[in-house]
Amino acid sequence: MLQPKKTKFRREQKNRMKGMSQRGNQIAFGSFGLKALENCWLTAQQIEAARQAVSRHMNREGQVWIRIFPVKPFTKKPLDTRMGKGKGDPCGFVAPVTPGRILLEAEGVSLAVAKEAMRLAATKLPIATKFIVRRDYVE
Q1: Cα–Cα distances in Å, from 56 out to 70, 72, 98?
Q2: Is residue 85 situated within a structural domain?
Q3: Residue ranges making up the domain that contains 126
Q4: d(Cα 38, Cα 130) in Å, to the nearest integer?
Q5: What percent of the chain has pLDDT over 90?
Q6: What is the total count of domains within the chain?
Q7: Is the confidence at residue 137, as pLDDT, over 90?
Q8: What is the spatial distance between Cα 92 and Cα 109, in angstroms, rounded to a whole number?
Q9: Is residue 48 within 8 Å of 83, Cβ to Cβ?
Q10: Cα–Cα distance, 62 to 107 (Å, whole number)
Q11: What is residue 19's DSSP assignment?
Q12: Taking a C-beta distance cutoff of 8 angstroms, is the pair 103, 125 a contact?
């Protein structure tokens, strides 16, 4: 699972997700990408499930880049706990995603294979996504 090696603080505040993605919103490494169209917190498990779906469909040919990393810890209180008594214990890490962010990139396979692989990855994610192709891509 993806998670930071070390964090400065165990717990973090929620913060707001507003506006479009200002960075990480253009294809940088591959020829094909999966772009987020909504706000969300993607957990490390969801990112890993999407990565596995892409690499399995591509039969481990080509290359896949994960453009997001779960750096934000989130907390959860135990079940049957009354309100109050402080913040809960950290139970995982999430990657805050805003619209326009590139989630995955792929290279080294045909357009049809990449499109189907990204479609399979999109089904593993809780948000609406869009398949995109690099501007200067030629088959």
Answers
A1: 22, 28, 27
A2: no
A3: 32-72+91-133
A4: 10
A5: 93
A6: 1
A7: no
A8: 33
A9: no
A10: 5
A11: S
A12: yes
Report pLDDT digits (tens) over 14-34.
999 899 999 999 999 999 999
pTM score, whole prediction? 0.91
Rounded to the nearest 5 percent, the helix, strand and coil shares of the chain are 20, 25, 55
Q: Virtual CA dihedral for 61, 31, 103, 59, nearest 10 degrees?
A: -10
106 is a domain residue: yes
HSE-up of residue 122 (Cα within 13 Å, Cβ side): 19
Report if residue 4 sits inside a domain.
no
Using the structure block, give the residue that is written with the tokens 């309100």: 83
Q: Which two tokens stand for residue 120?
A: 């399979």
CA 123 to chain centre: 12
Residue 127 belongs to domain with CATH number: 3.90.1170.10
pLDDT above 70 coverage of the chain, percent = 100
Tokens of 33: 């990408």
Give kind and range of the element (H or E) at residue 123.
helix 111-123
- DSSP, res 83: S
DSSP conformational letter for 110: -
Task: Say if residue 39's pLDDT is above 90.
Answer: yes
Q: Which two tokens stand for residue 86?
A: 């402080």
